[in-house]
Amino acid sequence: MKVEKDITNKIEQLTEKERKLVFMKLKQLVNKNKQAGTSDKLKRLTAYVEAKDYALDLENLKLYLKESLPDYMIPSNINIVEEIPQLPNGKVDLNALATISKTEQESKTGIEKPKTEIEEKLVTIWEEVLDFSPLSIHDNFFEIGGDSILSIQIIARARKLGIEISPNQLFEHQTISELALFIDDNNTIDTDNDDDIFTGEIPLSPIQHWFFETYVSAPHFWNQGVKIQDIPAGKREAIESAIDTLIIEQEALRLSFYHNQEGWKAKVLSPEHIKAFDFYDISSLDITEQESFIEKTLHEVQSQFNLAEGSLFKCLFFKTSSKGKDVCILISHHLVVDAVSWKIIQDHVISAIEGNKNDSFKTTSLKKWNTYLNEELDIETWKKDIDFWNAQNSVSNMTIPSDFNFELPLREKSIETIAFKLDQDITNKLTQEANSVYNTKIDELILTALTDSISKWSKSDRVRLGLERHGRETANTSFDLSNTVGWLTAYFPLSIKNEYGNDYGEKIKSVKEQIRNIPNGGLSYPVLRYLKKHIDVASIADDSPQVLFNFLGKQSNTNKGELVITNISENSKDAESERYYLLEINSYIKDNQLMVNWSYSNTVHKRTTIEILIEYFEKALIEIVMHCSKEGENTQYTPSDFPEAQLNQDELDNLLNELDLD
Predict the structure, then answer these.
(1) Mean pLDDT over residues 416-426, rounded?
(2) How many CB atoms lie within 10 A of CB 421?
(3) Terminal CA-CA length for the chain
(4) Measured between alpha carbons, how far is 230 from 88 in angstroms, rounded to an integer?
(5) What is the DSSP string of 224-269?
(6) Helix axes of 607-631 and 504-516: crossing angle, nearest 10 degrees
(7) What topology is assigned to 18-181 in CATH?
(8) Torsion sign (Cα): 139, 140, 145, 150
(9) Pick from 448, 444, 442: which is nearest to 430 by CA?
(10) So what's the pLDDT on residue 38?
């Protein structure tokens, strides 16, 4: 048959490593579906019994339960645990119990242990970062709770152990067994081993160009922050030392910005010019007065940020008493940090609080990365993306419902936010079960639900979104940005076609393929538009999608040991800051729940209108997660799962049918 011949020809054209990888994936798929075919797909009732010092006879325990419970309430499995895990509020931690259940299931199906030193190191790293154990070398990173932000942490920890991985490699080879095939012991990463501290001019990043083009009225006041509470006494010096180290090592934290006839420019200042640590002794005040003082000080510090003078990152340390419970606020202008940067900074400070040695390591400097994007990148390799991005801009913005007449730009003073939390049990299924069915990532299922709900809400079959990626994906493995602070985010438009009605299976696969068709992690759009001027738009309003979406991955839990950690978002922008989009949707997973913050303008929408959209979204996401749960373990693959083979869906289906997976 012609199709079989085409498949054979494509496979023969692959390199030896690529063929080995394709066959490995197919073998895993066969084994996975065989296990699914022989497993019990019915939902089973599981009981957990805390019994530290007792040896229980499980069969006798079941007989005892039968005396007082109907048959359908007798658990099929009884798991003995040393301790029932609990949340800080004293409730049972269902997510932790589900992990125990998953671990036991894996022990029944068999966990393939690492065979090489590299695989052993990777297993250790994955288990630590994902908080998932035991782990098989065939477990898919994204199916067991991984996301793009966590991938950067994986890369950073691997590098400390001498393993060089690029972000692209982790996205393309999502199991340890696959990834190990492509790790080259001879990889050389561009790091800054030079102890000289750079000062001077530095090119703007693409996202910084976008910022200065968009926010004209009050660019000095656009901040982000983290509040760390309940710090033990005597930690001031350790924190101040950690901040000093960050200022020396991270060029972004020493940035200043000025405007001349050519536009906005950036300059890295010397560490001596930066005042980043402020100490306040408020131990003589009562609790109410302390809270008021902290709030007032935070507002004053933010409002006094001066782009030209620098010191755009600050650590505010408040001594609240001689017995501890001190407070540390990390506040920064968004121009110098992003989500990955906050993780780097926060881990550095918390490590200092806990008394651990900070094994800092230098990665590619901000100057080298920005210079590469602006001056050294071979743009010819990215010009092929121009047609794709022009297609995203050529799609007219959908008309979403509005309650009032309005004109762009909107103003920050009109913005309100509705915080939505997904049920913890559904979140657990979303992060640990649902993605195995269609080999998806968490954000792809969320985007499927979001696209479906906005399409229904706006009565449009195409949903044009503004999306953010971390911007650290690069096929050039000589760059390592895993421990580099800076605003490196890639922001770009994407038009997603919503199709297949209520067939969630086909809908998920469709959205997944459209998302994975984004070239170069989305970074080529801002580079081509802002740095190389190859993409033209009539105005900011024309370029800006009406809805922005960002998935920030798994965030640090509110309680980390004795510390209480919260993000600061209120009053972090100037009231007159411009806004050229109507909705901003920020999602993340924290304390084992999916959190989605919906911000809108009260000059465009009533609160009830946004609540209707949120109801659509919640319903769609729950139905998608439950659909995946009902599908069981029969994985359905799409062409993006086998990028090496370059097969279309029909060719892939024919190949899988030949393998007789059913």
Answers:
(1) 95
(2) 13
(3) 22
(4) 15
(5) EEEEEEEEPTT-HHHHHHHHHHHHHH-GGGGEEEEEETTEEEEEEP
(6) 100
(7) 1.10.1200
(8) positive
(9) 442
(10) 40
**Exposure of 325 by Cβ count < 10 A (0-12 exposed, 13-18 middle, 19+ buried)?**
middle
Answer yes or no: is pLDDT of 407 > 70. Answer: yes
Domain 200-366 in CATH: superfamily? Chloramphenicol acetyltransferase-like domain (3.30.559.10)
Domain positions in the chain are 18-181, 200-366, 377-557+589-632
Helix (H) / strand (E) element for 420: namely: strand 415-421
Tokens 């000080």 sit at which residue?
297
Return d(Cα 381, Cα 520) in angstroms, integer: 10
Categorize the per-residue pLDDT at 207 as very low, low, confident or very high, splitting at 50, 70 and 90: very high
Contacts of 553 (CB under 8 A, 6+ apart): 147, 148, 149, 150, 339, 588, 589
d(CA 584, CA 610): 11
Supply the angle between the helices 94-109 and 424-432 in degrees, to the nearest 10.
Answer: 30
Residues 29-46: what's their mean pLDDT? 49
For residue 200, is pLDDT > 90? yes
Least confident stretch, 37-51, 133-147, 242-256: 37-51
Question: Mapping DSSP to helix (H, G, I), strand (E, B) and coil, where does residue 216 land?
Answer: coil
Q: Using an 8 Å Cβ cutoff, are 20 and 645 in contact?
A: no
Per-residue pLDDT at 135: 80
Looking at domain 377-557+589-632, its CATH superfamily turns out to be Nonribosomal peptide synthetase, condensation domain (3.30.559.30)
**In angstroms, how far is CA 237 from the centroid of its own chain?**
32
pLDDT band at residue 110 under the 50/70/90 scheme = low
Which value, to the nearest 10 degrees, does the dihedral of the CA atoms of residues 243, 249, 253, 256 take? 140
CA dihedral 205, 207, 208, 214 (to 10 degrees): 150
What mean pLDDT comes out for the span 613-623? 97
String of b and e for 348-369 (b: at least 16 CB within 10 Å)? bbbbbbeeeeeeeeebbbbbbb
Neighbours of 511 (CB within 10 A): 26
- Bridge partners (DSSP) of residue 559 are 564
pLDDT digits (tens, 9 = 90+) for 590-603: 888 999 999 999 99
Residue of 151, 155, 163, 149 whose CA lies nearest to 120: 163
Question: Position of tokens 């101040």?
Answer: 240
> Is residue 596 classed as helix, strand or coil in its secondary structure?
strand
Q: How far is CA 292 from the centre of its chain?
A: 33
Distance CA 435, CA 442 (A): 7
pLDDT by residue (tens digit) across 248-287? 999 999 999 999 999 999 999 999 999 999 999 999 999 9
| Torsion sign across C-alpha atoms 440, 443, 449, 450 | negative
- Asked whether residue 579 carries a pLDDT value surpassing 60, the answer given is yes
- The yes-or-no verdict on residue 44 having pLDDT over 70 is no
- pLDDT for 71: 47
Q: Which residues pair with 462 in a beta bridge?
A: 497
CATH fold match for the domains 18-181 and 200-366: no
HSE-CB of 121 using CA atoms within 13 angstroms: 18
**What is residue 276's predicted lDDT score, i.e. its pLDDT?**
97
What is the average pLDDT value for the chain, to the nearest integer? 84
pLDDT of 530 over the 90 cut: yes
